Amino acid sequence: MKLTDGKKTVEIKIQRWNGSGYDPDWSADYFTAGSLPYNEETDTYTVEDVDYCIEAANMANEDGACGKYDENGDLVRDEDMFVFVEELN
Prior knowledge:
Layout: E1 2-4, E2 9-16, H1 27-30, E3 38-39, E4 44-46, H2 50-58, E5 67-69, E6 75-77, E7 81-87
Parallel strand pairs: 1-4
Antiparallel strand pairs: 1-2, 2-7, 3-4, 5-6
């Protein structure tokens, strides 16, 4: 999905490596795209801060996309989760 804050525009994908390829991108779910302002002409969703969104997706905590609970119940980084970011401007 494409995110912009008016200063910076990126395309971001959040995908899990399943051992033989990447699962489908679930960034639209993570960022709750349906609740964000959408510009049909540029195919971008508007957020307050693109850099914060990138950082949040990469976090390995309860709110981040890259966290998981291990067998002991501890929150750790999910080594199979990847956040791909391409800067568009």
